Amino acid sequence: MPDRLVKPLFYARDDPTLKTSQNWPLLQRLGPPTSLRLRARIDNVTNLAQTPLSDRLRSLVDTVQHNERTLRRFQNVELRLIGAQDFTSFLDTLFSHLPREFSLASVVLWLDDRAPMLLELLEPGALHALDQANLRTSREGGLAAQGLCDAGRPWLGKLNELDEMARRAFFGDVDTPASAILLPLAASDTASGYLCLCSDDPARFAEGMATDILERFASIVTASLDNVAHRERLKQLGMTDSLTGLANRRYFDERLREEIMRAVRYGVPVACLFIDIDNFKLINDTYGHQTGDRALAAVAACVRQQVRLGDTVARYGGEEFTALLQGDRADALTVAERVRQAVEKLDLQDDHGERIALTVSVGVAARTITGTPAEAAVHGHAMIEEADRAMYRAKRNGRNRIEALVQAASNSAAR
Within its chain, how far is the Cα of 319 from the centroid? Predict the structure, then answer.
């Protein structure tokens, strides 16, 4: 006689996998155990008939309680996904919390980096910063998942039954789990991604298993992904200059605070450049504001190309840009000269195809900062003011040049 006659729909932790049964009508005649009306099966009709009614009812109650606990765990995961404030938190819930909660071998997420709302989340620099091996965007993986999920339905079964090309496209070179379920993340009949739940138990996800709870979970993942993308987009708009695509002053001020704290913690120097386009008002007055906007965008792109990936470049205001660099005064002077030369070589043309000469004046400041957080913040802002004063000195001394104030009692210029 089996010790549990009715098996739950989705098994958490170490339970075996449920497969739907043709005996559901018999259980319906017994009456649903709770208002949840969870699907279940009867393992052995003959044994059920011979089992005392109290034992059968106790088994049903135990299973219903088990299912309710499982649903609560799902709900907790769903609430974490819905409440995720950024993409990192969203991925952490899927890749760390979900496998722990349901004893999964791994979770793999494939996203379409061509989807409009995902373009910025999945651009190469952002993916590199996330450093999530289980986040996939390859075209081959998407095609493999699309082929498995026929007509937008989940696929589940043993992964060793797939052809090698499909396995490698989705799982790469890592060891392939024994079984998995692949769930489309679709909105308006368009799949923006696929969620794969993997198990080392070959019977955990098998053909014929009921998938309604997991399909509902996939819809929550889809909605949460859309929420995160919107939040990240709004955050980006709030900290990005719309004309140049660079960070704005608000973002720069936040990054300055972070970089100053990093410099204090590790005892490393930090530097700042203030960059101002020479005679910009004359360009606007002569060629018009549209040409002036093109000049701003061209210089912004030029500056961005001359600094390292981890450095911060922002439009500080008007025709003024600033760059926060990881390095000492010599490093900053080298970067400043690269910027000056690159801008001087820009080929910006007016409406008649005539070249417009562009140059910049650059002020440089660098410091190794120590002290308490409050003291460090004061030194950081002093460095910014120092670079600003150096930039104005470059203007006074003829433009298209670099100036750096000596950090000492005197404020003499140095090149």
Answer: 31
CA nearest neighbour of 363 among 342, 329, 336, 343: 336
3-state secondary structure of 348: strand
Rounded to 5 degrees, φ, ψ at 130 are: -70, -40
Separation of alpha carbons 121 and 233, rounded Å: 9
Cα–Cα distance between 29 and 44 in angstroms, integer?
16
Name the nearest CA neighbour of 324 among 366, 360, 280, 265.
366
pTM for the full model? 0.54
Helices 329-344 & 289-306, crossing angle to 10 degrees?
A: 140
Instruction: Please give the average pLDDT of every successive group of 10 residues along the chain, which has 415 residues.
Output: 39 40 42 41 46 76 82 88 90 94 92 79 77 87 86 88 80 80 84 92 90 91 89 80 90 90 89 97 94 96 89 94 95 97 95 94 94 89 95 96 70 34
> What is the distance between the alpha carbons of residues 295 and 356, in angstroms, rounded to a whole number?
9
Cβ neighbourhood burial of 54 (10 Å; 0-12, 13-18, 19+): exposed
Token code pair at residue 405: 């104030």
233 CB-contact burial (10 Å; exposed 0-12 / middle 13-18 / buried 19+): middle
Distance CA 357, CA 347 (A): 8
